[in-house]
Structures are given as structure tokens and as C-alpha cells.
Amino acid sequence: MKKLTIVILMICFSVLVSAETFINHPNWIETRTADLDRRFNNDEALVVMFYRTTCFNSELRKHVVSSWLSDHNINVYGVDVDDQNISRWVWEKIQAPSVSLPVIAIVKNRNEYDVFPASISMRLIQQRLHELLGIYDASVVDFYQINRRTFDAYGTQDTARYLTPRSQIEPVLVARSDAIVSGISGDMEKLRAIHSWVAENIFYDYEMLETGNRTVTAIGTYNLRRSICEGYSNLTAALCQAAGIPARVVHGFALGVGSDENVMDVWNIYNTYLQNNDLNTITTRMRGITGHAWNEAFVDGRWVILDTTWDSNNDFSKRPNGTYGMIRGEKTDKFFDPTLANISSSHMFWGTFGTAYTVSGPGSDRTNTGGDNTNANDNRTPTVIRSEFTTPGNHTFSYRENYPATIEIYVLGAGGGGQGGHSKAYQQGFSTRTEHGTGASGGGGAAAYMRINVTGSTSFNITVGAGGAGSARFSKGVGGSWESASSGSAGGDTTVRFGSTTLTVQGGRGGGGSAAQAISGGAGGRAGTAPGGQTGWASGNGGNGSDGRHNNDLRSSNAGGIAGRITGNGSENSFGGGGGALNASGAQAGGGGRGGYGNESGTNGGNGRVLIIVRY
User: Fold this and answer.
1) Domain residue spans in the chain?
2) pLDDT tens-digit profile of 213-254?
3) Helix (H) or strand (E) holding 389
4) Which of 82, 272, 558, 574 is spaced 20 to 30 Å from 293 by Cα?
5) Does domain 5-135 correspond to CATH entry 3.30.70.1400?
6) Taking the C-alpha atoms of 549, 551, 555 and 556 in order, what is their torsion angle to the nearest 10 degrees?
7) pTM, whole model, 2 decimals?
8) Which helix H or strand E contains 565, and what residues bound it?
9) What percent of the chain has pLDDT over 70?
10) Tell me, which fold does domain 146-378 have in CATH?
């Protein structure tokens, strides 16, 4: 097997420790940036760490990652940032002026690699180790031995303990379970459908982690459509049991959100277990450490593992304006019925389970899997789902749950491209001189807002316009008049179609024109009128680009047109308004490209954007 190498980059803002505490591992090799760059350019698979010896985070992740990879004959190459620079190809992934240590870059080749700052959980780093380097062996994190022993001790007895009569489960959960499994044959496929529904429709609540106001019961999670792992697991168990499938909540440890600070403690506890083979070591010492919850369901004579939290990529998280909102991700099934070896790469079983799902009283949302702060107002709390589309091309958004609902649609056209610069040669005695001129800038894309009420399933077909391309520069020889470069390309229109309604928002025009000497700024996009007489409508026109000029450098003032803006409509205080390109700054979403000067090409316009907000 070819020996692989991994790159880890770190900038640290945590507690300082002495350099002597930075433990060395046999597969840890000190190197220099120049050596890493050579390996990267040669398409080597790499795992490397840029670290600081006085950084506790560096010490922690160095220990954990080196331990993961030592059994796979993989070296971890370390570079001390107090002595060396971080490679340019790493900064290209980070796309930020600074980065917190530790940062991990996992490289399959120079075209396929990822970079992870210290804020990224070990869970995601581990997943990318699997995906990029093909490390699926459970010894990446050696929890397999304890999991095998615990899992073998389960047996198949007492499954009735984990099956509550439907009459004791809240009617709304029974009805939801019936709808999910309707028309499906076989308990395994019913279980898969329940797993998919929870992963697609529940959002991980980062506000709950921050405030400590916990809503983790099945009915509370269902009503709010958000929770943490315990809520995901309680709801999954309730829906399974309502479908006649025995299910329980498993308590353990996983390399997920909030776990990094406990990795060293868990590692030491587990190593003690490997030495003395005493299960009490785990169950006693682990109780004080933040854990994780997932599920097991008894199907076809065996306990099937599933983790709906980890297969859900929906977040209820803080936005730049400080408020929390729902951001929908893409559901996966990586943690539906994984092998014990695969789940052991990230999860450790404690061997404790939530008991059967029961209701403590009429109308209550409390179960005996753990208390919370949920109250009777849960079902009146408005839920917000945000979906944003910024990549040019076609997309689909479907809404099929919880009616009636109000849907807000914000749309932004793409910015036009800037015109290339131009130059002209003049005869001056026996020599020539060249003068340069500035191309025109592209216009900004328009913006529009629409609000609709829905009482049934609705799908939206979305086309996000691409920013217009800037044109190439043009050079004119001796004789004749000034001529300009070709005009920049127009920004693409952005459209949203639903039912018989089509909402089209125009992109900005490219800078310049069709005539040889045209250097006029591109016109801003126009939003038009409300389609089909829709109410709840607002629009904003994109700004015009700046004119160019022959024999003049206007780079400091010929900004691309500003994107249209929507203010005072809907739940967003302001949408759109992205600036056009100016100097070294690229165009923001919907902004126009800048005209080039002399031998410079025009810059591209910003892409369009669609934001959909659902409230129910």
C-alpha cells in the first residue's frame, strides 16, 4: 500500500502551554513549506499540520490525528508557523485574511483537497479523511473493541420494552408516522422512510446549544422542527414505535458538535479500558462527559443502527445580523444501518439506553427519556426555513409540509461584465508612443420581492443568472481614430417559476456598446412589473455602470453598477444592493464588472441570487 501523507494547518487563539508539552508521535515528521509545496505540485496525497508549539489546540489535534493515522502507515507532516509561512494553495481554500489554528488540510491531489480551520469539528475532518483518502477502517478511531463487546451483549431479548402502544403516543405523532410509511411494505423500508423524514425536516438547533433552553422531547422537537441530538433521537424512536417497530435511544460519545474539548479525556478513558478490559471504566468515568444520542431499531431479527442527527444537514443557526434562522441542507444516509466497524470510527457506545417512549399525561410533551423546558406554547412558535441559491444554473425548491404557510421570494439578477481596456499607438518622430484608455463598467442586476400564501405542496424551478463576462482588451495601431474593446457580456436573468407564474428579474447590461468607439456604461437591469397581478410585490432596478474614457485612467472611479435593492418588504431588512467591482475588489452578488484600463480585461459581473423564506 502506498504511504499517504496528510497536511494540517493551524493558527491558535487558545490557552498557551509550554513547548515541552507538545508530544511527538512516531508518524509525526517536521518539514518545511517548500517541501510541502513540492509534494502538492507533484500530486501527492498529503496530511500535514501547520502548528504553533504554544497552542493547546495544536497539541490536542496533533495527538488525535497522529493516533488515528499511525495504524494506517500514514505520516503527518508538521510545519511550525512561527518559522514558516502557510502555503498559497491553502489560503486559496480558506479565502479569508486570517485563519485560526489548528487547521487541517487533507489532500488527495492538487485538484481534490480540503482545508479545516480549528472551528471545524473533528467529525467533519474524519469524514473527509474517509472520502478523500479512502480510510474506512474502524481503527481510525479505535472504538471498535468496546463497541463490539457492548453490541454483542445486547442480544435480541426484551424488545417489547422498546415498543409503546400507539394509544400512548401523541396522536399527531401517530398520524405523522402513518403518513410517512403509507404504501411502504417491510419494516426495513419503513425504518428508512422514517429516518429520511426526520433528517430532512428537523433542524439542528445551535441557539439551544448556546442558551441551554432545551427542547428535546419527541413532541417538542416535532412542533418546533428543531432540536439537538437527543430531540432527533426521541422523535425518531416515537415515529418508529408508532409504526410498530421497536426502537430505543442510545447514549454514547461521538466526534460531533461540542465534543472536541473532551476528545483527550475520552481517549485516555478508552486506553484505560483497553488495558484492564473493565466495562465499568467506561460507564463510570464517561458520565461526566458531554455525550451524543442516536437510535437503534429492531428489524428483521437484529438491532439496526441509525443516526438521524448526523444524516441531517439542516441548521437553525445565527445569521450575520445576529438573528437565528433555518438553513436547509441536503439529507444523506451515511448513518442509516452502518456496519459496526464504520460507526466505530466516530461513535462510542456506553451501553445505556433510553427506555420505551411513553406519555406522562394528556397533552404533555414529556417522555421518560429526559426532561426539558418545553411547554404548551411549542406548537405556536413560528418556524422559519431559509433556502438560498447563489450558484448559476437550475435549481429546485419544494415545500410539502405544514400548511398554511407564507413564502417570501427574493430574486436578484446578475451583473453585467466590464468592457476591456484599450490602447492606441501614435507615430512620434522615428518612434511610437502608446496611450491607454478605460473601458466602460457593467450595470447591476435588478431585484424583486414577492410574497405568496400556500395551502398545499408547491415546487419552485429556479434559474440563477451568471455574471456577465468581462471582455478582452483591444489595441489599435498607428493611424485612424480610437477604437474600444468589445462590450462586456450581459448578466444573466434570474427566474423563479411556480405553478403558472414566472418571475423574471433582468441582469445588468455589459459595459460598452456595438459601435467601435462605444464606451458607455452598461445599463442596470430592470425588474419589470408584478407577474400575473401578484400582491406582496416590490422591485428595484440595478444601477448603471460608469462610462469609460479614451486616453484616461479611471480605475479609481469606474465602478460597476450597484445591484438593485429591496428594503422594507418582508422579513429581510435589506436584500440586494451588492456593490460593483472597483479597483481590486470583485463585484458582489448582482453587481456590475469594472472596465479595464489599457492592457487589462474587463472584470466579470456578480452572479444572481435567490432567497426563499418559508414561515408556518
Assistant:
1) 5-135, 146-378, 388-616
2) 667 788 888 988 888 888 899 999 999 999 999 998 887 777
3) strand 384-389
4) 272
5) no
6) -90
7) 0.46
8) strand 565-567
9) 75
10) C8orf32 fold (3.10.620)
